[in-house]
């Protein structure tokens, strides 16, 4: 039994434009604003994503909100979360923010996992059934939720490896449109006076303070903006799957850091291309390992063990990136994210 | 609970034993065709629940879910959870087969004639939960004071084992400035080594523990020599180093899983019966754990306060350049700190394996944030602050279970961390210097 390389490549190609890739790109873009441009060590991006996911799902399921209201609830909750995180820590040294954000994200995950709130959060089993319904294929009667907004007729779309049904087609378009808009917004912001102050804070906080800028407020605005990107990413992330609380562990944040550092922390395209490279390579590598294991090329591994290799690879890649190419693929060596 | 007490007493003990025997034979004879998750992928809607007795999950309890012309059987899994997919919204009956409960245990609800049958509705949320009140035939109450005392003792035990790991982390932070996320894996490493030598190689426990601690010390030394020293030489900043430690933590953690698998295994003598010491009940393992922690912590204190190298360590923590200028070999101090930190983390991992109880690949990662919380609470970089912080975290985690659900106890400790940073960012014992 050989290894079907063509199939592995095709599976990798699917990840090129998948909504999951878009979600990670958007979350990494938010982190680029925090970490790359402002120098904030936010280790709680998973928490912002969880707020988006649960904010959307709970508003839809428990309160039967329409899509726009559910999105607003998620975004509003993430602004509140950013304020709660920022008020005590943005005046302190950078590593304090990292500890508080990672702790806050874990608190959120524990709250979403506990049995106490099971009727609302679904506890460890999570939530599903918030995607809505397309309704009647012709009259669209009974359409609700995100699937109900789909303007495309039922059928199959795309070509080659990218063939999908109308739901995934609509979702893919929405996801990437949001990513592109967010990237354009970030690009414009970073070349505006606001962006110059933000980058100044990263380089030398005291110098910016000496110029009469209120560093604290700028940091807070950056934390909120990047957090909202993370929240929107959390919503895109759950639309192809179900909400499961264990997805929002700190490992998620570390994956996003890997993506960000892969592309380049202080760049616009970096997070987007980083996410694409990350997911395509991860799919190809784990597809190859799984099939090579199945074909008996790796006799010392079981199929479960072969699945764990991807995490080891991510960890090693993260270490090597930071040590040998901290500016990432697109970054400028002069504009390193690591200043202190 | 009078009603249940009566109900239980009506059943002759002989008949119960007979049924239990019969059941045991049945389960041995035929492998159960049920699982803890049935049809979740097939159907969009879900009924789930948890079978617990006094916070301990009960496995292998049979439940039948019926309604809307649909019927499915499920058995609770090892974690006591079960879940089934159901085809549509509507009303369902969940029946718990009481005969699959352990002997002397029943579903209790004084206001219900048939407490083992519950009606539930799968509504808009697409899922519903059916939990049962399970208890002994009669209710046994523990006075609040007794509960508090038990929690305090447990909290001290937990705090002391946290302190072992936290002091190592704090010393490493103090001397190198590194926030070492891979400390969690140093904790797991100790427990996994103890498992390897005590269970897989069947050495005597004391020998296995000594070998595990020596190997953990070697692990700390290797990490410093192979990764951190070259990075310090290269002049890599502190934040990149922290992210390297995150990558290292991820890679090591899944390497452990690769070799040891996902299951939880026990070290020898885990789960020994409690001894009664006046109002306190403790297992010999708990006693030994606390004694070992206290002796080792006293040893660390002696090392830091009385020995030359300990004083040099504190000098480097205070001001590396000044220490270096006064003739202290900073690299040697850092190497020793990594060795000591590795050994302490390894010991902490072994004690944590007895406290949880169980050894698993991610056990260190589960308490990493509590260790960080302890170090931050005490004041980053101060060894004795880490001890105080650990005791606060340990006590708080355990005592909070008097009010908080037990699956939320870690969240409480993390909330305290954030509150302390809000009001006293330098930590309980930290000096009030500029940290902004």
UniProtKB/TrEMBL annotation, chain A:
Keyword Membrane carried by entry: yes
Keyword Cell membrane: yes
Organism field: Antiquaquibacter soli
InterPro entries: ABC_transp_permease (IPR001851), LivM-like (IPR043428)
Keywords attached to this entry: Cell membrane, Membrane, Transmembrane, Transmembrane helix
Protein name in the entry: Branched-chain amino acid ABC transporter permease
Cell compartments where the protein resides: Cell membrane
Membrane topology qualifier: Multi-pass membrane protein
Spans through the membrane: 12-33, 40-61, 67-87, 94-112, 167-187, 223-242, 248-269, 276-294, 306-324
Location (main, coarse): membrane
Superkingdom per UniProt: Bacteria
């Amino acid at each position: 039994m050989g290894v079907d390389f063509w199939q592995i490549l095709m599976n990798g190609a699917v990840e090129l434009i998948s909504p999951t890739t878009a979600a990670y790109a958007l979350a990494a873009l938010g982190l680029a604003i925090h970490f790359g441009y402002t120098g904030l060590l936010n280790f709680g991006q998973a928490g912002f994503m969880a707020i988006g996911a649960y904010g959307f799902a709970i508003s839809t399921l428990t309160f039967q909100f329409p899509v726009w209201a559910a999105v607003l609830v998620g975004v509003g909750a993430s602004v509140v979360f950013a304020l709660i995180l920022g008020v005590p820590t943005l005046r302190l040294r950078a590593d304090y923010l990292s500890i508080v954000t990672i702790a806050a994200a874990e608190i959120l995950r524990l709250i979403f996992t506990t049995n106490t709130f099971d009727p609302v959060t679904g506890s460890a089993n999570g939530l599903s059934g918030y995607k809505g319904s397309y309704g009647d294929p012709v009259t669209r009667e009974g359409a609700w939720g995100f699937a109900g907004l789909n303007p495309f007729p039922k059928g199959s779309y795309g070509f080659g490896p990218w063939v999908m049904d109308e739901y995934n087609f609509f979702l893919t378009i929405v996801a990437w449109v949001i990513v592109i808009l967010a990237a354009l917004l970030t690009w414009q912001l970073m070349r505006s006076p606001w962006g110059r102050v933000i980058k100044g804070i990263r380089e030398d906080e005291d110098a910016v303070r000496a110029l009469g800028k209120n560093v604290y407020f700028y940091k807070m605005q950056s934390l909120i903006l990047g957090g909202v990107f993370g929240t929107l990413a959390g919503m895109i992330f759950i639309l192809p799957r179900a909400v499961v609380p264990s997805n929002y562990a700190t490992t998620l944040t570390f994956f996003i850091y890997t993506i960000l550092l892969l592309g380049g922390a202080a760049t616009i395209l970096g997070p987007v291309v980083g996410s694409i490279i990350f997911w395509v390579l991860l799919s190809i590598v784990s597809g190859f390992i799984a099939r090579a294991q199945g074909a008996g090329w790796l006799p010392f591994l079981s199929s479960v063990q072969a699945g764990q290799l991807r995490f080891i690879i991510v960890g090693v890649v993260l270490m090597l990136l930071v040590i040998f190419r901290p500016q990432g693929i697109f970054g400028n060596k002069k504009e390193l994210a690591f200043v202190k | 609970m009078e009603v249940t007490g009566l109900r239980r007493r009506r059943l002759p003990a002989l008949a119960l034993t007979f049924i239990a025997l019969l059941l045991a034979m049945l389960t041995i004879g035929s492998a159960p065709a049920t699982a803890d998750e049935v049809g979740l992928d097939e159907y969009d809607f879900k009924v789930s629940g948890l079978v617990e007795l006094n916070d301990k999950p009960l496995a292998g309890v049979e439940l039948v879910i019926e309604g809307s012309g649909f019927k499915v059987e499920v058995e609770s899994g090892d974690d006591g959870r079960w879940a089934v997919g159901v085809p549509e919204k509507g009303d369902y009956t969940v029946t718990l087969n009481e005969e699959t409960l352990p002997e002397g245990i029943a579903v209790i609800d004084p206001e219900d004639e048939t407490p083992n049958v519950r009606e539930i509705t799968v509504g808009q949320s697409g899922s519903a939960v059916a939990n049962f009140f399970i208890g002994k035939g009669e209710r046994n109450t523990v006075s609040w004071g007794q509960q508090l005392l038990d929690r305090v003792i447990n909290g001290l035990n937990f705090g002391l084992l946290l302190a072992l790991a936290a002091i190592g982390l704090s010393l490493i932070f103090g001397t190198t400035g590194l926030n070492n996320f891979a400390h969690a894996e140093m904790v797991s490493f100790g427990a996994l080594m103890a498992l390897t030598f005590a269970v897989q190689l069947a050495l005597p426990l004391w020998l296995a523990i000594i070998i595990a601690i020596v190997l953990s010390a070697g692990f700390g030394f290797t990490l410093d020599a192979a990764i951190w020293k070259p990075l310090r030489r290269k002049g890599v900043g502190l934040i990149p180093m922290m992210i390297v430690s995150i990558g290292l933590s991820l890679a090591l953690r899944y390497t452990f899983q690769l070799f040891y698998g996902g299951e939880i295994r026990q070290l020898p003598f885990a789960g020994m019966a409690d001894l009664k010491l006046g109002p306190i009940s403790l297992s010999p393992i708990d006693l030994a754990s606390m004694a070992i922690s206290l002796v080792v912590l006293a040893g660390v204190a002696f090392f830091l306060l009385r020995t030359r190298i300990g004083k040099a360590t504190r000098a480097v923590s205070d001001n590396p350049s000044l220490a270096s200028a006064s003739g202290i070999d900073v690299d040697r101090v850092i190497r020793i700190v990594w060795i000591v930190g590795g050994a302490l983390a390894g010991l902490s991992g072994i004690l944590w394996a007895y406290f949880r109880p169980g050894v698993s690949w991610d056990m260190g990662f589960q308490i990493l944030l509590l260790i960080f919380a302890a170090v931050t609470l005490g004041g980053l970089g101060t060894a004795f602050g880490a001890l105080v912080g650990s005791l606060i975290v340990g006590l708080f985690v355990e005592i909070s279970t008097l009010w908080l659900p037990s699956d939320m106890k870690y969240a409480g400790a993390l909330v305290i961390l954030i509150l302390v940073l809000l009001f006293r960012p330098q930590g309980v014992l930290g000096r009030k210097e500029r940290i902004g």
